[in-house]
Amino acid sequence: MLQLTHIEKTYKTGEIEHQALRDVNLAIRPGNMVVLCGPSGSGKSTLLNICGLLDQDYSGAVHFAGELMTRNYQQAMKIRRTQMGFIFQKFNLVPVMSAFENVAYPLQLNGVASAEVKQRVIQMLDHVGLVEFARYRPDRLSGGQQQRVAIARALVHRPKLVIADEPTASLDSVTAQQIIELMKHLGSEQKTAFIVASHDDRMTRRCDRVMNLQDGVILQEEAPCAA
Amino acid sequence: MRRLKLAVLNLLRNRRRSLLTVAIVSIVVMALMTSGGFGLYTYKSLKEGAARSERHLVFTRPGYFSSDEEYPLQNGLENSDELRKHLMTDSWVKAVQPRIYLNGLISNGEKSTIFLGQGILPSEFRVKGPFLNMTEGGILRENEDPNDPKILLGKDLAKNLNVKRGDYVTLMSTTVDGALNALDFKVQGVFATGVPDLDKRQVYLSINSAQFILNSKKVSTLHLYGYDLEDTEALKARLAEQATELKITTWEDRAFFYQGVKSLYDRIFGLMGVIMAVVIFVSLFNTLVMSVTERTREIGTLSALGTSRTELLLGFVLEALVLSLVGAIVGILLAGAVSVGLMVFDVTMPPPPGKTESYPLVVYFSMNLAWIITLAVAAICVLSSFMAARTGVNKPITEALVHV
Which of B21, B57, B81, B357 has its CA 20 to 30 A from that of A140? Predict the structure, then answer.
């Protein structure tokens, strides 16, 4: 589904160049949950941005569903809108929108009819256990609840791929465990692939593949620890 | 509706800032509405004054206004009665009034001074309505006794000659043949124009008396009254064929003061409008730049979710439009209140230069002006919001997402 070939990425700060990714090759299959591990500065976020078609300034090629995405800005935006979801460490919910409106946003972007939007948002909020909080704005929700809303937003339009950047980093351990299970459950239910950047051991234990990055290179690909 | 609701909610995030921007827009709109309303009142007053003096059209011999006469009525109209009757047959014509302009000396028997006279048909007072501010006595009568001619004097002229209603004065002028002629008049009334130079010199007498003094049957001009000032050009075109040998001049061509004031006011209000536009632009630009900067991470998130730059820009433009429309509505309401307040409290302005009479301060409330100002403010808002939001929206998504 997602194919990265010979990806190289260099950051320039004045005269200083820093190579963040070196000859990265990666293939993500539908329904897979892949965790990117590695210390700070290893290139996790850079790789995640390229996988999520957020960064087009690299060398190499990225294909999504067989179509070349490299420097293809309009198509990348369309793919992000229709076939991708995003979960961020700081939740990144729109503060002036209610939980319902935040979850409804991707559907509205895709032009889904309002009756169907309502039905699918309620269903998704029910999945994440927040139906009764539908009218609440993010500032009235706990961190765990906000991340549930973010997961609902990422999955409501049934994307093929969800990009998650440290989704449990801002949560307590109990809530983090719940969020991981929720992602795993909804992902397998919808056949959605996940690429997750995480330091969380519980996440690596529940995924299908773990990739260790160091200095911009995928050092090894491991099977996860037993669930 | 969803976009509008979102725009309003975003504006309510920082209520004080939004309120301040609305206040600035509304003050600017109010200032433009009231100054524009005052300008419209001034234009209308001057237009009416000019049109009242000249009426819709003036019929003269060619060159009447451009060349000096060597003797009185040299460029006067002959057979004016026939032309007058002919013009009166047109259904668009309300009235046609002849006029003779003359000058000479006026005397009370002991003291003489220069006068500027207008010979008119007394029916002009009926046709025109009250156009003279009579301070003493009354207007000229249509059934005037030709053996006892009457005259109206400017108030300073009457004061200078020390005459009042019922007293007699003598007018002396040169006839069309170059001889000196004189006629005694009984003072029928005294008027004030508000212009000192006119009050010191001007007299009104009947056209028959003027023709007697000048020893001619000619008149200087024929003034044609239509029904609506807006029809002036159409009326001119309609009547052009009926008086091909005459020059037809519209009131607007003769309204030099009106044109001058309008030109001056247009420039003043135009400059004021530009300054106000800059104030609104800077104010909104500042508000929106702060708003965009604060919401950079949110812009990144929405872009990541697949929101196009156009949609993001549209959101900010909509916010600016909401601010401008709310500000415009408040400003228009305030201008309306000022307009009504001035009507209720009857505020007067000091006499303008060259005049002796104060005039009421009136500010017209014009919906046309309100629309124009609102559209202009909205256009400025769209421009400023576009410029303010462009930088934030064009920031790379990866940079926007890590913005602190």
Answer: B21
